Here is the input.
Amino acid sequence: MKSILLKLLFFFFIASQIKAQELLPFVENYNKSDYQGDNQIWNVAQGKDNAMYFANNHYLLRYDGVMWEKYTLPNKTIIRSIMIEGDKIYSGSYKEFGYWYRKEGKMHYVSITKNLRLFDEKDNEEIWKIFRFNGSVYFQSFNDIFIYDGKHIQKIKFPFLISYCFIIDKNVYVASVERGLFRLDGSKITNPKGWNILKNTVVHAIEKYQNKTYIFTQKKGIFIVEKNGLTPWNNPLNETLKDATINVAKFIKNNKLAIGTGNRGLFIYDYTTNTYKNIDRNNVLMNNSILSIGSDKENDLWLGLDNGIAHVEVNSPISFFYDNSGLLGSVYSVATTNKGYLIASNHGVFEFDSGKFHMMPNTQGQAWNITKIGNKYIIGHNDGTFCYENGALSKINNINGGWNLSKSIINNTYFQSTYSGILVYDNISQLTQNKKIQDLSKPIKYVAQNKKNEIWAADNYRGLYRVLYDDNFKTKKVENITQQSKIKNDFGVKIFEFRNEILFLINNSWYTYNSITNKLQENELFNLNFKNISDVVNIDEDHFMVLQNGILYHIQANGNKFVWNIIQEKYYKGTLINDNLRIFKTENHYLLNLDDGFISLQLKYENKQNSDVKIEAFNSENLVENQSKIKYNTELKINVISGIYGASKPNLFYKLDKNSDFIQISNGLIVLNNLNSGNHSILIYKHDGANYEKVSGFDFKVAEPWYFSFWMVLLYILIVGAVLFFYYKWNKLRYLQKLKLQAEELKHQREILEMELKAENELNVQEYQKHILELELQTKSSEVAGKSLSIAKQSEMIENIQSILNSEKDFNKLKSEIKKAIKINEVNKHEWEIFETNLNQIHNEFIINLSKKYPNLTPKDIKLCIYLKMNLSSKEIAPMMNISFRGVELHRYRLRKKLGLSQDENLSKFLLSL
Here is the structure.
């Protein structure tokens, strides 16, 4: 019971507190932190360069859609008024007026009154208005008018305090603070008849519209000039304006009147519909006190506030409903009714009627969707499904979470996707009767049908299902098509109906169903035309909306061609409800839900983006011309200025040098750092969602680093030259010192070497002599050995013969015994081999040298040479070689020839010298 009472109290509180705001134009507010200036904005005007200029107390503000600039007068006085003609921005301040002009990316001031004594010392004059009349520029203060023809200044002084001057029908009207309104004729003034009602009131504006002159007073409202005088504006709004304090007024495009007030914000009156809208702090304006109104070439308004600036897109095809209170909550769906609007939000279902909202009873909680069928509105709610008809609300069923309701393409059956599956309404006149698709009891987000007995269902989380059923809606088969098609990433599948065809958006790719393969296949047309799409919402057969990289595009289909119209991100930035975009179509508009309200957009909206962009580049706050040079390692800021502030502002991208990637330009500003030295090129492109179109470009060069500049290179060369010179000198000195040390060292080494060589020579001589002695010793040993052997054999043989002679008497026997003794005492072969081997070993070096020099010598020749070297005689050699004496002599003769010796040369000495 207590919870019911709390709900009722909450319901009545909501119903009584919420006050609706009509659809309003988009308002973009700029506060002091944006333009870094003062509070009041006294005047607003657009320049020839499409930049907006503001008189902001001590500053002249300039805004080109990218960058704010502020400038002060030389005397630092307050700027009260501005007027723009061509390239000149005239400004008026305290005892000063002149003009500004732009050069090299900055504003420069020229004083007209400098050195002229136009103002009396006792006067406290400020220039509050500037206007052109009859070829001259008029500067108006509270007491005087200064007429400037380009060379001379004429001063007209009034006997009373004036507020403003106005030009109507080629006449100048001067508004007195107390005496009413006067017509200025030359330097004379006259008071028109029948206008005495304007006495003791301040006239803040005079405008002419449809051949009628309107006079806007501060506290008496609006008057219309008639033949017999003035009559109050016959409109209920007039009474409201009397209390609101009119500060400024202006007729604008499309039969509308804009009135800025001191405490009620802006009123926009539509003469076509006889209705008005009030934009103030209660909805979107950040300040209720409007001091000035200006317009741009898009026919949108710029409001100068008591504290800030507001850009009001009164001529935009987009309108908004704002809920700044937060009581309405996030809007998930909206529909138009005969009385106003029906809104489904996360707080419940609300009805808009006669400018007020009230919550429908028993609808507290999350409401998802509103679908209009004839005169009925079907509302999907967390607690079930409701039907709104003729102002009455009834509950259809208690099945939780009616996300979406979609109509079959082939008949009048409706399918509702819910938390627990799919409901079928096959008779729309009996909504309380429904059927549930069996075997699919899971949260289904989207449902579609284009073939009998077959529906497509997308799971809220992942998966796409094909459901087959009979004529009684009994399920025959449920297939997970994304699994069958082997699509791994099938989260958040979206179903899109396009011209009786069903497409599936899965992970930024488009698919259609192939009934032959029973699998999904990629759709060539949509994958070619719609890339990187994260969401899609159908409007009608030829219109739909896509979300691409966070940007909404309105698409119009013409056959197989698609016209893209961008919807600027600023209209919904941070307020889109992801995966819950819903559109309700009216006759000429469609409504799109937002987190804090909804958008109304013209169905035939066509955003012709401006292609004329201007580039201003700044390096260290200095303007950089195209194809100029900037310093190395400095920041380059490139302002891409379209001169468009409203809905048709282009969506711009850029490419740097040969980079293939398109980079989005945020707020018209490109900031480049850490650029390499050399030539660079920036290309600017306009993007409509499908195509990139080049609209401008900028070329520049980054200078070499300061350490690579001409003078630095020259310095490097001088330094290197000096270093090389001193190095050469130092190296030469070191070289000379080294040569000297080397000479001394060489001398010392030579002395040591000489000593070593001398010692070595002495040692070698000793070794040589030792070697010679050893050779001689060997030779002698050989000779001794040979002779010893020969003597020993001879002695033995002689003893044997003598013994035989002493013992034998018989001569024949004696003879036989002697022969036997001689034979016995012959040297045997083995002994000779041992002898020769030893002999060769002793004379091995001699044999090697001899064989190298005379390779044609035979072993017998070498043996003879050894015997001759041993100084043996031919007689001694004969038995050792087993030849006769004569044979030795003959062998010696042949050896001399082989050795090439003459007859005079001694063979033995020659052999000893080898």
Observations:
- Residues 1-21 have pLDDT under 50 and may be disordered.
- The chain is about 25% helix and 40% strand.
- The two ends are 144 Å apart (CA to CA).
